[in-house]
Amino acid sequence: MSDNLRIGRRGLLGAAAGTAAFGLSGLALAQKPLVVGFIYVGPRDDYGYNQAHAEAAAVLKKMAGLKVVEEEKVPETVAVEKSMESMINLDGATLLFPTSFGYFDPHMLKEAAKNSKIQFRHCGGLWQEGKHPKNTGSYFGYIDECQYLNGMAAGSVSKSGKLGFVAAKPIPQVLRNINAFTMGAHSVNPKISTQVIFTGDWSMPVKEAEATNSMIAQGVDVVTCHVDSPKVVIETAERAGIFTCGYHCNQAKLAPKGYLTGAEWNWEKVYTSFVDSMKKGEAPGNFVRGGLKEGFVKTSAYGPAVPAEARAKAEAVKQQMLGGSYVIFKGPLKDNKGNSVIAAGTSHAQTDPVLESMNYLVEGVVGSTS
Amino acid sequence: MAESPLGIWSVPLAMLAGAIRVSTPFIFVSVGECLTERSGRINLGLEGTLVMGAMSAYGVALGTEWPWLGVLVAAGVGLLLGALHAGICQLPRVNDIATGIGLMLFATGLAFFLGKPFIQPKAPNLGAIELGWWSSIPQVRQALQVNWLFVLGIALAFALAWALRNTRWGLIVRLAGENIDAALAMGVSVGRVRLIATSIGGAFAGIGGAFLSLYYPGSWNEGLSSGQGLMAVALVIFARWDPVRCLWASLLFGAAGALSPALQSIGVTQGYYLFSAAPYVLTLALMVATCSPERSLRGAPGELGAVK
């Protein structure tokens, strides 16, 4: 009995010494798992935007020494501040990913000012040095490259010369996609026009179906979209027998006949690199961007409806994009009201922040930003 | 667009098409709610019933490859939810509006919870009947693609209107809604009448939900209803508790909802936010126009809690 006690006491002392040693060498910190929080605006399995993020989060979950907490269907209101606070205070998260556009300003910035030791990285926001706190940042992929390739495929199969684009809101990222899609189509057929319908919000299934149908009634024969879940648009188009290009994820299964190709995210790449730098004790990058070249985005495999010739053309451009030498937005470029938006001789490489405040629709787009 | 052979006529055509496509859930929910309210009870939970119907119909269609069985199951689920509402409301000192809101939240949450595995897979669709075979214009053909449920909804509206006016059964429902004392004096069990009326109303809403997930837009996701069930309940008041007027109101709502995409698709692109608000503006305007400074709305059942 007394022996046991003595050993126990010795063990206790040893453990205490050990803890102190670990504490000094900083290893105690490494033993505590890194907690990463993901916040989604919609359901995790929406065949779209949120699913693309959740798939990457699922990859993180398998990494050792890492705990992932997730919350879905958080509106872009004060609700997201509460979610962030509970992830920080209750779950002990030190790296947060609020993934929806509207979370950035003011919600994430407010929380970042309050919790200066926590790292916040937002998907899609335009982080600016000096203007925004150091512990915040933003990451995004140049998915307009894939939209340009979508446009090339769409332009080469369209018989009516009318393409359709179901969009949620006229924000810069959406406009950039619409423009890239249209310019891609123009590169194979300069006469093509793209009809845009804004539904007003990220997830409006009935409106999206209605928008797709009214475009079909106007003779549109290829449709793509920028909404949270492309499922409704793709299925409606497939039922009507027209072609589709996917967005966010691969929707080829939903439209075996009409699916041409698609623009997909590859967030896994971004998130694992963020986690790696956190583990090294460094802050992740504040302004992280990448396109096809960096592996942030990818394209779906071509569907059976895309002819070999069109595939070859698109592949040629894709190779240039992968090499980092292709510039989509270069002058002279006019908007659809006839004003010059990029002067001749000027070219904006993908990394140019000017492109992230895009507020126009290019020539050939039927639609308006307000 | 200028090159479209229909020109500006494509807008009314698209609105007609929209009315046919979008209105069906409104028809089912509002006609069902009309019956429930005529018996003297309000069921605000129909939004939840609609979502639950949509989810269960999709799940059954997915599992059995029989979409019509899905419709049947959705009706059954609606029936049960309606019966649950009626059962709770029969307990003493229970407010039917509060119960309805509670059941709405419950059924929506339950549908989201149970519906998780159905978001990804693709279920078979209810087919359409082509009523536009006589026309060579593709827009007309597309507009006149009609689902059997739409036809059924119209038939139900007229049948209910006739039954309420001309049958003994209709008289009993109206009596239960107008005056409990008179009903009791006649030996009518008000509770049972309301139980049946609320259950049938729930079943109708379930079918409306099946239409959403199995025909238009034709897939299950959590944003599917986005308040259509609640709007349909408001339509009943606007339609003054008349099933046939519920039908017209639903069609009007469908058409108003189609206005924004239809205008944008022909190139009228300015101010689409305003056009998107059209159905709601329409509701408000009609409510203001039809409201009365007197005790209750014309046509309102006398025992209805909300209008007393």
Note the overall shape of chain B.
globular
Helix amount of chain A: 25-40%
In whole angstroms, the N-to-C terminal distance of chain A is 82 Å
- What is the CA-atom radius of gyration of chain A, in angstroms? 24 Å
The CATH architecture of chain B can be named as: Orthogonal Bundle
What share of residues of chain B is helical?
A: 55-70%
CATH topology of chain B: ABC transporter involved in vitamin B12 uptake, BtuC
CATH class division of chain B: Mainly Alpha
- Count of distinct structural domains of chain B: 1
Task: Count helical runs of chain B.
Answer: 13
- What is the strand tally of chain A? 18
Largest inter-chain contact set? A-B, 41 and 45 residues
Give me the side-by-side strand order of the main sheet of chain B.
Answer: 1-2
User: Mean pLDDT of chain B, rounded to whole units?
Assistant: 88
What is the typical, i.e. mean, pLDDT of chain A? 89
Number of helices of chain A: 11
**What low-confidence regions of chain B span 5 or more consecutive residues with pLDDT below 50?**
none
Characterize the main sheet of chain B.
Answer: 2 strands, antiparallel
What does this structure look like?
The complex is a heterodimer of chains A (370) and B (308). Chain A is an alpha/beta fold. Helix content of chain A is 40%, strand content 19%. Chain A has helices at residues 2-25, 27-31, 49-61, 78-89, 104-114, 144-157, 172-188, 205-217, 231-239, 267-279, 308-323; strands at 34-39, 66-71, 95-98, 119-120, 122-123, 138-141, 162-167, 193-198, 222-226, 243-248, 259-265, 287-290, 297-299, 329-330, 333-334, 340-342, 347-348, 365-366. In chain A, strand 9, helix 9 (231-239) and strand 10 form a beta-alpha-beta unit. In chain A, helix 6 (144-157) packs parallel to helix 7. Chain A starts with a helix and ends with a strand. Chain B has a single domain (7-307), classed as ABC transporter involved in vitamin B12 uptake, BtuC. A two-stranded antiparallel sheet of chain B has the order 1-2. Chain B has helices at 10-38, 46-64, 67-90, 96-115, 138-143, 148-166, 168-178, 180-185, 190-214, 228-238, 243-265, 272-276, 278-290, and strands spanning 129-130, 145-146. Chain B starts with 9 loop residues before the first helix and ends in an 18-residue tail after the last helix. Helix content of chain B is 69%, strand content 1%. Chain A binds chain B through residues 42-43, 45-47, 73, 195-200, 203-211, 213-219, 229, 231-232, 235-236, 239-240, 253-254, 366-368, 370, and chain B through 1, 4, 10, 13-14, 17-18, 21-22, 112, 116, 119-120, 122, 125, 138-139, 142-143, 212, 216-219, 221-224, 226, 228, 257-258, 260-262, 264-267, 269-273, 276.
